[in-house]
C-alpha cells in the first residue's frame, strides 16, 4: 500500500500568521499610516514606538488564533474584508466607523451599485482574493498541542511585553496622540471596521427591546389654522448631500441657483447638520432632540415631528426618492418613488427628483385639509452625480460620467456636482411654482434643508460620512431655504423683512422640528419657541404654540 505525498508548499502556522499580519499592516493601511504620520507630527521616536507596538499587538492576536481548522478561514476573512475596507479608505478617504457600518446595513441596491465598480472588483481580486487563494493552497504545519501551546504562548507573551514596553517608553506622546486623533485607530484595516461592525451589532440587539415613547399627544392646531376653512400646507423638502458652499445663494461664484434667486426666497447662510450621513441626520432633524442630546436609540424610541403633526390632526405624508425615512415616517402615509418607470425622469433604474412634481401637482389641487408633505430627495447623492439631473441641466462641462471618481479630474467632479445643485434649484422652484399655482385656495409654505453635505476631494476626502467631530465644513454646512405664499405669511403673522434680517444667523437641524410646528400653528407642550427659527419674526398673535 502506498501513501500519497502532499507536495504542497508547507509553512508553519505562526509563520503564516506573521506574514499575513505584515501584509495587512503594509498593504491595507496606507490611509491609516498617512494619518498616523500627521497625528504624530512625522517620523519621530513616538511614531516608531507606536508603529512597532501596533505591529507586535497584531502579531500577538494573529498567532493566538492560529489554531488548526480555524487559521485558514480566519486569515481569508481578514484578507477579503481588509481588501474591501482598504478600497474605500484609500480611494474615498472614508473612515469605516459604527455609523458608516450602519449606512452599509441600511443602504439599498440602487445606492450600493454606484460604489461597487470594476475598479473595486479588481482591487478586491488582486489584494484580497489572490492572497486568500495562496493561504488556501498552502499546507499549514501545526505542532502537537502542547508544543504549539508553549511555542505560540511564548510569541504572544513576548510580543505583548515588548509592545507594552514600547508604549510605556513614549506613553505621554502616544496617549495624547491617540486621544486627540481617536478616529485614527478606526482606520486600522480590517480591525477597525470589524470592531465597528461588532459595536453596531451590540447596539442593534440592544435596540430590539426599544419601546416607543409617544410625545406631543396633546398636540392640536391653534386658532390661526383652526379659524379658517383654507387649508395650510407645508412642503418640507429633505435635501440629500447638498453642501451650502456650492449654492450661489450663499455666495458661490457659479450661478447654481438662478431660479431660486429670481423668486427672492428666504435663504439662511449658516446652517449646520446633525450628522454627516443620512442614517443619522434624517431621523435627527425630524427629532425633538438637539444634536448634542440625540442618539439613535433616543430617535427610534421617541415620536418624530411627523407623528406630532399627525397627533394634531394634520394630514402627514412622506414621499421618498431615496433610501427610506429611516424610521421617521413608519406611522404615517409613506410612498416610495425611486422604483418608478417614468422615462421622463428615470434611467438606469433610478429616478431624478422631477418624479415628484406631477404627483405633487395633483395632490395640491385636491387638498382640503391642513397638510404637511415631506419630499425626501435623491438630490446630489454621489458618487454617480451625473444620474441626478436630466441631460438638459448639464451646463457645467465637462462633467464626470462615472461612479469611479478617480477616473475623473477634480474639475469634472465639481462640474457634475454643480449640475446636481442646478437641478435641485429647478426642482425647488417648481415646488414653489405649484404652491403659487394653488395660492388662491391654500396657504402654502416650502422649507428646504439638506441632510448633510459632501466632500469633493478636498484634503483627499470624497463623499460623506466622516466622524462628526472631524468632519470638514463641506460635510456639515448645509443649505436652508424657505418660501411662503402671501396668504401663509399674512395668516401666520410672519414678517418676511424680519426673516431676511436673520439670514446670517446661526441655524441648524435642531431648528426644523420646532420651526415646522410653529409654521403649522401646532400647540403642544413639546414645542420650544427658542428653537423655532421663525418665532422672533412672528407677530404676537401668531405666537400660538406653547413654550415647553
SSE order and pairing:
Elements: E1 10-12, H1 13-27, H2 30-40, H3 45-64, H4 71-92, H5 98-106, H6 109-112, H7 118-137, E2 139-141, H8 145-169, H9 171-180, H10 183-186, H11 191-207, E3 220-221, H12 223-226, E4 232-239, H13 258-263, E5 266-272, H14 278-285, H15 296-300, H16 305-311, E6 315-320, E7 333-336, E8 346-347, E9 350-351, H17 357-366, E10 371-376, H18 410-437, E11 443-450, E12 455-456, E13 462-463, H19 473-476, E14 477-484, H20 486-492, H21 496-501, E15 506-508, H22 510-519, E16 522-523
Parallel strand pairs: 1-2, 4-10, 4-11, 5-15, 6-7, 6-10
Antiparallel strand pairs: 3-16, 5-14, 8-9, 11-14, 12-13
Helix pairs in contact: 1-3, 1-4, 3-8, 4-7, 5-11, 17-18
In brief, what are we looking at here?
The protein has 22 helices and 16 strands.
Amino acid at each position: 500500500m502506498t501513501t500519497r505525498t502532499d507536495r504542497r508548499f508547507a509553512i508553519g502556522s505562526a509563520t503564516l500568521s506573521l506574514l499575513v499580519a505584515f501584509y495587512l499592516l503594509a498593504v491595507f493601511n496606507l490611509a491609516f499610516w498617512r494619518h498616523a504620520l500627521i497625528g504624530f507630527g512625522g517620523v519621530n521616536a513616538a511614531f516608531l514606538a507606536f508603529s512597532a507596538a501596533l505591529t507586535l499587538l497584531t502579531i500577538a492576536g494573529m498567532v493566538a488564533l492560529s489554531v488548526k481548522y480555524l487559521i485558514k478561514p480566519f486569515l481569508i476573512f481578514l484578507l477579503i474584508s481588509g481588501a474591501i475596507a482598504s478600497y474605500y479608505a484609500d480611494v474615498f478617504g472614508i473612515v469605516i466607523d459604527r455609523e458608516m457600518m450602519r449606512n452599509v446595513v441600511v443602504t439599498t441596491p440602487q445606492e450600493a451599485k454606484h460604489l461597487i465598480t470594476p475598479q473595486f472588483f479588481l482591487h478586491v481580486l488582486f489584494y484580497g482574493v489572490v492572497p486568500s487563494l495562496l493561504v488556501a493552497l498552502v499546507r499549514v504545519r501545526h505542532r502537537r498541542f502542547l508544543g504549539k501551546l508553549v511555542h505560540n504562548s511564548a510569541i504572544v507573551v513576548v510580543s505583548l511585553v515588548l509592545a507594552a514596553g514600547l508604549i510605556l517608553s513614549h506613553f505621554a506622546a502616544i496617549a495624547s496622540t491617540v486621544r486627540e486623533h481617536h478616529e485614527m485607530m478606526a482606520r486600522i484595516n480590517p480591525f477597525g471596521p470589524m470592531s465597528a461592525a461588532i459595536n453596531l451589532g451590540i447596539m442593534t440587539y440592544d435596540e430590539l427591546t426599544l419601546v416607543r415613547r409617544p410625545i406631543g399627544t396633546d398636540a392640536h392646531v391653534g386658532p390661526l389654522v383652526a379659524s379658517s376653512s383654507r387649508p395650510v400646507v407645508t412642503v418640507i423638502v429633505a435635501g440629500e448631500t447638498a453642501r451650502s458652499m456650492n449654492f450661489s445663494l450663499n455666495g458661490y461664484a457659479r450661478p447654481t441657483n438662478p431660479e431660486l434667486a429670481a423668486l427672492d426666497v428666504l435663504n439662511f447662510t449658516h446652517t449646520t447638520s446633525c450628522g454627516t450621513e443620512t442614517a443619522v441626520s434624517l431621523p435627527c432633524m425630524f427629532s425633538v432632540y438637539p444634536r448634542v442630546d440625540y442618539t439613535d436609540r433616543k430617535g427610534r424610541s421617541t415620536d418624530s415631528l411627523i407623528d406630532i403633526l399627525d397627533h394634531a390632526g394634520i394630514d402627514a405624508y412622506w414621499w421618498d426618492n431615496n433610501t427610506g425615512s429611516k424610521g421617521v415616517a413608519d406611522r404615517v402615509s409613506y410612498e416610495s418613488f425611486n422604483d418608478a418607470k417614468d422615462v421622463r425622469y428615470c434611467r438606469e433604474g433610478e429616478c431624478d427628483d422631477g418624479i415628484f412634481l406631477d404627483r405633487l401637482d395633483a395632490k395640491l389641487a385636491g387638498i382640503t385639509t391642513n397638510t404637511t408633505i415631506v419630499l425626501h430627495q435623491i438630490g446630489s447623492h454621489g458618487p454617480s452625480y451625473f444620474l441626478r439631473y436630466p441631460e438638459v441641466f448639464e451646463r457645467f462641462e465637462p462633467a464626470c460620467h462615472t461612479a469611479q471618481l478617480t477616473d475623473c479630474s477634480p474639475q469634472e467632479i465639481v462640474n457634475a456636482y454643480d449640475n446636481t445643485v442646478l437641478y435641485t434649484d429647478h426642482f425647488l422652484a417648481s415646488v414653489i411654482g405649484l404652491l403659487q399655482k394653488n395660492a388662491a385656495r391654500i396657504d402654502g409654505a416650502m422649507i428646504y434643508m439638506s441632510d448633510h453635505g459632501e466632500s469633493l476631494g478636498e484634503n483627499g476626502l470624497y463623499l460623506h460620512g466622516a466622524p462628526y467631530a472631524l468632519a470638514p465644513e463641506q460635510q456639515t454646512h448645509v443649505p436652508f431655504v424657505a418660501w411662503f405664499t402671501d396668504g401663509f405669511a399674512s395668516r401666520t403673522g410672519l414678517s418676511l423683512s424680519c426673516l431676511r434680517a436673520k439670514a446670517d444667523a446661526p441655524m441648524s437641524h435642531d431648528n426644523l422640528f420646532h420651526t415646522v410646528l410653529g409654521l403649522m400653528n401646532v400647540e403642544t407642550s413639546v414645542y420650544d419657541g427658542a428653537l423655532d427659527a421663525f418665532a422672533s419674526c412672528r407677530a404676537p398673535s401668531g405666537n400660538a404654540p406653547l413654550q415647553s
